[in-house]
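During the second half of the funding period, the structural biology subgroup turned its attention to how the target accommodates small molecules. The most pressing case was iron/sulfur cluster, which had performed well in the primary screen but for which no bound structure existed. We therefore specified the complex as follows and requested a full 3D prediction, including the ligand pose.
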Amino acid sequence: MPEFPTLIDQINALLPQTQCGQCSFQGCRPYAEAIASGVADINQCPPGGDEGIRDLADLLGVSPKPLNTHFGVHKPASVAFIVEEDCIGCTKCIAACPVDAILGAAKFMHTVIASECTGCELCIAPCPVDCIIMQPAPPTNADGHRAQKSAQAKRRYDARCLRKEKEEVEKAERAKKKKQALLAANLRRNMPKA
Ligand code: SF4
Ligand code: SF4
Ligand code: SF4
């Protein structure tokens, strides 16, 4: 964050950073941008619940209001758990987890790092064998300070985004080199023989 955080940064810092999308935006920052521009209301984040709405209301100098249940209901903290004997090692849950809280490799069973899981539930739908279930969060997750937990989730989410960006750049570089090599090979093949 810059030395003087923008309003969007300040709003984003109050959001839970699960990136779950229940607010109808593609993650916490897009929702923060929508609030700052007046497109979205402050009561659209079920994971943040009433406490989150109060924090946003205080920051923006408006009155708090009840959570709009059209976007979902506030639930107790939970974490994902993989029934390992049923896992087929497809890695789809890893691809879906915004905070890299799942460990595993292709064709090997996967496991959730409970202390890093935000309970966003984004890994559940992609699992082809329905072997991910939600369980009550351990006390270490459930009792932590909200701001501390969301800052930790944001750090992991930002790190994942950076890694993904780097992977995309590397993939594009590899594709470019392959194309250049193919072009060079074609040129050599079509050159008249001396
Ligand atoms: S945690 Fe809240 S703000 Fe972030 S994506 Fe989920 S609903 Fe939206
Ligand atoms: S393990 Fe599942 S529920 Fe936990 S943070 Fe990752 S995607 Fe969300
Ligand atoms: S999506 Fe399900 S089956 Fe695939 S690796 Fe994850 S837990 Fe295992």
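Two results from this model are relevant to the next phase. The longest strand covers residues 78-82. Strands lie at 78-82, 102-103, 111-112, 132-136.
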